[in-house]
């Protein structure tokens, strides 16, 4: 049995109208005109501002680093904590950057507990903890060259 238009109205069944797609970004690649191709860039990321120059992000990360350094000294006996990496230079630090710390004189049996503690201190930033005695020489050189004691 086939429904007629009068039956559809009687039972309040509405037929969907055919909608023509006019949005150029809902087209397939073959449907784009040369002008639309020029506008199309699948790899562009559009943001309202440059987050790398947001001072609040950097300040928040510095506070987190200082809290971690305090914990490393007071709880795990670190004699010195050095901040290095992108957080040392304000131009390079952004929301996806990590906090790099090197801690001196944490005993080997407490190092991984210290690492787990500082990693768990922030949900926003990944914190890396380096033992300057056992790390690669290139990392040790970077710590000495660009690091700042906190």
Quick description:
This protein is α+β, with helices and mostly antiparallel strands and 150 residues long.
- Which regions contain 5 or more consecutive residues with pLDDT less than 50? none
Helix content: 25-40%
State the CATH superfamily name of the largest domain: Beta Polymerase, domain 2
Based on secondary structure, the structural category is: alpha+beta
CATH T-level topology of the largest domain? Beta Polymerase, domain 2
Describe the biggest sheet? Answer: 4 strands, mixed
Second-tier CATH architecture of the largest domain = 2-Layer Sandwich
Give the strand line-up of the largest sheet: 3-2-1-4
Strand content: 5-15%
Keywords:
150 residues; 2 domains; four-stranded mixed beta sheet; 5 helices; elongated
Characterise the protein shown here:
There is one protein chain. 37% of the residues lie in helices and 11% in strands. It has helices at 5-10, 34-39, 55-76, 108-119, 137-146; strands at 80-84, 99-104, 127-130, 148-149. It starts with a helix and ends with a strand. The chain has a four-stranded mixed β-sheet with strand order 3-2-1-4, with helices on both faces. It has five helices and four strands, in the order αααββαβαβ. With 150 residues, the chain is an alpha+beta fold.
